[in-house]
What does this fold into?
Amino acid sequence: MSQKESLLGRSVSQILELLQPLGEPEYRARQIYKWIHHHNVDHFQEMSNIPKSLRSILSDHFQLKTLQLAQKTEALDRTEKYLWKLADHRMVESVLIPESRRNTICISSQVGCSLGCQFCATGTMGFLRNLTPGEIVEQVLQVKKLSRHTLTNVVFMGMGEPLINYQRTIQASQILGDPEGAAIATKKITISTSGVVPKIYQYTDEAHHYGLAISLHAPEQKLREKIMPIAMKFPLDELMESVRYYMRAKKRNRVTFEYVLLSGINDSPAEARQLISLLSPFRCKLNLIPCNQNNLGFHPPAAEHLDKFIKTLLNAPFAITVRKNRGEDITAACGQLAVEVQEKAIFMK
It folds into this structure.
């Protein structure tokens, strides 16, 4: 028996197209869309303002949620990691990071990743497939119900490269930021990229209002090539020119540069000075992330080296933050997401 199509992750116009053979009025699609994405229902029968006859038809031909929770783990710092089994038995992960002023969910856009960044565990999986808009949105909707924390922020910094799965990432973001959808404030949604230059230009030209984060991790081309193979396809100078293009169009926006600190590789005062030179022309924030342990041979800088690196940056004309490692004891921290059970059966607990 073939799998029913899910309506979750579909736009109002896409739902309307499915309803047209039934002769339903246009407003019905908006009602169904809102029940799915805003009210976060699990069953069609919960849609109280939809005629019972239509609810039955929808139940017979479509489904809503398709992700099964395979495992939920909570770290000592209250970070929550969710392992999802997809309809095709592939696995992806999401992470919820609770803080005093915000609660951020880090979501995946692909199963695995093709970019092969040397320090990232997800890259060891290789690329398996893109997630659908529904599978992306559903991570947020499921965690809204399963977590005791109220979600305020969404970051596309989980498994995969969002801009390679561009159209589905944008459609998911539109639903997440829609007041009648998941109702996450648009400015609280951030899409991260390792530097898919053509898509940065497209993203800029389409005038999206989500935040943009660049996974930089090296201040010069040769070093970036060694740890991020994408730099061979999209060199650093081309990447920075695309960021300039974005900044000219988004004069009020500030771009975030992510920089994972790898002991003995990119954490010297010399690299800090190169960062100042590289980033000073931009209205930006530099987010320093000490490397997390993931059995790939990389280590975070020692405290004294980190201190020297930060002190070198103190006179930089841009904002600097140092990200505290979160969820490291449950391999939920930055660079640690990888599914070791990808091709194995998962038994629900």
In short: The chain has two domains: 5-63, 68-330. The domain at 5-63 is CATH 1.10.150.530 (DNA polymerase; domain 1). The longest helix spans residues 133-146. The two ends are 26 Å apart (CA to CA).
